[in-house]
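Progress report, Aim 2. The chain analyzed during this reporting quarter is listed below.
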Amino acid sequence: MRTRQEPWGWVVCLESGESLRQSLEQLCLELGVEGAQVSGIGGLLNPQLGYWQSDTGEYTRHTLEGRWELLSLQGNISLYEGRPFAHLHVTLSGPDYQVRGGHFFEGSITATAEIFLRTCRPLRRDWDAQVRAGLWVDP
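Predicted structure tokens for the chain:
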């Protein structure tokens, strides 16, 4: 991983084999980032995506096997249970040029991921029993 600080946050370059989610959350922990907008592009290996079922409060998960082009990474960093939490969504394309997308759980970087972390004041997330999800409590 390579990083560069900017007046608005950080430019982050993840490298082949790194875990996208774990790397971002660990970086934010080390840098003290408690609130940020995340955006990026790159490539992923075996990404696990989800679709949230609002009626059950659970995700349906699916792993896309192989290499995928990361067309768009969007999300945020907040604090959940005292640690940086990356809430991420992705749009991906495979060798058939068909687009897939959803909530991002996990995947490894293929060649690279080029990410912008635009920092803001801390965001805190707590469990909402009615919605059955961790939601921002102080936007």
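The helical segments are 20-31. The chain has one domain: 2-136. These observations will guide the mutagenesis work planned for the next reporting period.
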